[in-house]
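User: I'm curious what two different proteins look like when written out as structure tokens. Can you demonstrate?

Assistant: Sure. I'll show them one after the other, since each token string lines up with its own sequence. Here's the first protein:
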Amino acid sequence: MAEQSPLKKRSPAEGSALPRAGVVRLARKGGKFRFEKNAISELHSFLEATASDIAKRSGRLASLAKRKTITKEDVGFASTE
């Protein structure tokens, strides 16, 4: 029996926690414009870096308050810094 070729799957960016499909959906909500592949990639990188930065800042705020749980307020303060 002949070997089957593996299915070519689109994998998320290396080590990415934010799925590209979600970024594409967000971009579509932005209006009637179309996005180039490179523009989606750039937006994906920016959103992931921003979310990671806010999560780290939120964690520091919770830690300073001697909590293990990040609250809505922590995220709000971290996003305005």
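Here's a second, unrelated protein for contrast:
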Amino acid sequence: MSATPTEANSSYLLRKLHSLTGVVPVGAFLAEHFWSNSAALVSAQKYNQTSEDLQTIPYRIFVEWLFIFLPMLYHGGYGIYIWLRGKFNVAVAELEGQDSWQRRAPERRTRQPRTQL
């Protein structure tokens, strides 16, 4: 049974959301840590001030849950769902006498010899 167009679009959107929830929160978290830890290069006082500023963000717990924990929970949960639904294809590739990367490789065009004028 084939997937309906809405199921295909839904799967596409869920996979894109899965990618974004893996890259964006981790990237933002890393950028924030680079920024805050770079204050230590200026002085200990500056680093302490930066740390204090981060601790006093209004609604910090809400922001952390909304932009860090929930996206990571979705990313992990959907990743496990994709993993569990995955199909094992090594036996099929061995039966065909090809590795999976060889089956998908585009055919190479051979260069035609130049004709002399």
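A detail about the second structure: The CA atoms of residues 17 and 75 lie 8 Å apart.
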